[in-house]
């Protein structure tokens, strides 16, 4: 499922499906963002798979359970922990959980749909590796801006 999610994120959501996913890479107001429609699509997919499985296809049932579990985990960890849509008090400071959060934060370090890293979720590469990859591409939004005005001598912006 991680492989499927990675491919869907990289080629669909950052491809022709950017229209929905864009909302997740921008600041949005309100509780819902357009990107949540993907969760709805995956839920419907899981329901269809369960329906097929009930007709005597146990293998499809196993896939349906996999999709559902992945979706639940993603909903809790990605939406809740990483993006703070749930009132989690503690941000993990060590181990795998910390790496997972950092890796996904780096996915959001790039503005726009191209040049992003870390499309997967469960498999979180070490931060150093992702940072190096980003630096090499030079696509980090903050760095891009920094090229025209360094943050040290930049006048404070009034919003
Ligand atoms: Zn994305
Ligand atoms: Zn995210």
Automatic annotation (TrEMBL):
Would you say which domain of life the source belongs to? Bacteria
Q: Does the keyword Transmembrane helix apply?
A: yes
Q: Which UniProt keywords apply?
A: Carotenoid biosynthesis, Membrane, Oxidoreductase, Transmembrane, Transmembrane helix
Q: Does the keyword Transcription regulation apply?
A: no
The GO terms describing molecular function are: beta-carotene 3-hydroxylase activity; iron ion binding
Q: Which residues form the Fatty acid hydroxylase domain?
A: 4-120
The transmembrane segments are 37-53, 59-77
List GO BP terms, alphabetically. Answer: carotene metabolic process; xanthophyll biosynthetic process
Question: Which family is it part of?
Answer: Belongs to the sterol desaturase family.
Recorded protein name is Sterol desaturase family protein
């Amino acid at each position: 499922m991680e492989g499927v999610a990675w491919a869907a994120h990289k080629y669909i959501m950052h491809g022709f499906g950017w229209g929905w996913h864009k909302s997740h890479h921008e600041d949005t107001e309100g509780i819902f963002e357009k990107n949540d429609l993907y969760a709805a699509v995956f839920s419907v997919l899981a329901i269809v798979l369960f329906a097929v499985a009930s007709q005597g296809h146990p293998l499809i049932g196993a896939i349906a359970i996999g999709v559902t579990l992945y979706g639940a985990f993603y909903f809790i960890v990605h939406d809740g922990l990483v993006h703070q849509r749930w009132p989690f008090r503690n941000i993990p400071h060590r181990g795998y959980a910390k790496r997972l959060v950092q890796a996904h934060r780096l996915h959001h370090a790039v503005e726009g749909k191209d040049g992003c890293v870390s499309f997967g979720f469960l498999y979180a590469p070490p931060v150093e590796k992702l940072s190096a990859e980003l630096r090499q591409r030079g696509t980090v939004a903050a760095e891009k801006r920094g090229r025209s005005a360094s943050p040290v001598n930049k006048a404070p912006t009034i919003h």
